[in-house]
Design a protein that fits this description.
Strand content: over 45%
Distance between the termini: 50 Å
Order of helices and strands: EEEEEEEEEEEEEEEEEEEEEEEEH
Number of strands: 24
Structural class: mainly beta
Helix content: under 10%
Largest sheet: 9 strands, antiparallel
CATH class: Mainly Beta
Radius of gyration: 19 Å
Number of domains: 1
CATH superfamily: Jelly Rolls
Number of helices: 1
Bound molecules: fe (iii) ion
CATH topology: Jelly Rolls
């Protein structure tokens, strides 16, 4: 830690709420838009985790998106994505799909297993007004190209997006060049292991603990609980007596009005009406 650097502390806690989405997939909504700008540019985080096929089998049949990005991170299981452009991608354990809906995409996300554990996350990241109507695109990122950085104490950090700087240099994740400059780390903290990571001071940041328990600046967070982090240049993470695993996310705020209607996220109500009209008339995707 350099002199004068502020360590981010835990702000508001994020308690996930059980819900269903798609054709009846059971999931936990960790947060959703409408809870102030402290999470800007992030709009929503869902966690899905079940050994019961009845909780996930129905999947997410054909549906539209406009105006933002969805990031799907599979921890366990097998899901297939298909879109109106004819793209098809398989998501298996450890893979990530980064989809930019832009002007519009119509896609399905369907489980490809009838038993076993299905576990992962879907994150929604907003796009600035200037990029909301750009052409849709997506990237399938296989687990093997996601760098894993090993730190003292047996800590490992999967760098899905952003950059991590250690004593031996810096490592960049496979996703870059986005205007929100997202940081997306999956961090495994063994018992009592401790690390300090830099985070851009310009960014809003939050964590979500999905295994065990951790502490940030001495304050404990247990499995299933997230927290918005306050301002600072660094964050200090520590595993509790049995260790823990968390997502650490940060992004540069967009600072624009957000109007959301289901799968459409725009800046004004008129743009939402246009999205609905475009979808109903078959012009969503251009
Ligand atoms: Fe979707």
């Amino acid at each position: 830690m350099k002199k004068g650097q502020r360590a981010r502390r835990i702000g508001r806690l994020l308690h996930g709420r059980p819900t269903t989405d798609g054709a009846g997939v059971k999931l936990v909504r960790v947060f959703a838009h409408g809870q102030s700008g402290e999470l800007d540019p992030f709009l929503m985080l869902d966690e899905f985790s079940s050994y019961d096929a009845g909780d996930y089998l129905a999947g997410f049949p054909s549906h539209p998106h406009r105006g933002f990005e969805t990031v799907t991170y599979m921890l366990d299981g097998h899901m297939q994505h298909e879109d109106h452009l004819g793209n098809r991608g398989d998501l298996k354990s450890g893979d990530v799909q980064w989809m930019t809906a832009g002007r519009g995409i119509i896609h399905s996300e369907m489980p490809q297993q009838h038993e076993g554990r299905m576990r992962g996350f879907q994150l929604w990241i907003n796009l600035p007004a200037a990029e909301k109507m750009k052409p849709a695109s997506y990237r399938d990122i296989p687990a093997v190209i996601i760098p894993v950085v090993h730190l003292d104490g047996g800590i490992s950090v999967k760098v899905i997006a952003g950059e991590i700087t250690t004593a031996t240099g810096s490592v960049c994740g496979p996703i870059g060049g986005l205007s929100t400059e997202p940081v997306y780390f999956d961090i495994d903290l063994p018992p009592q292991a401790r690390c300090t990571l830099p985070l851009p001071a310009t960014h809003n940041a939050f964590v979500y603990v999905f295994e065990g328990a951790i502490a940030i600046a001495g304050a404990a967070l247990t499995q299933g609980v997230g927290a918005v982090l306050d301002d600072g240049e660094i964050v200090t993470l520590e595993g509790d007596a049995s260790g823990g695993r968390l997502l650490l996310l940060a992004g540069k705020p967009i600072g624009e009005p957000v109007v959301q209607h289901g799968p459409f996220v725009m800046n004004t109500a008129a743009e939402i009406r246009q999205a609905i009209t475009d979808y109903q008339s078959g012009r969503l995707t251009g």
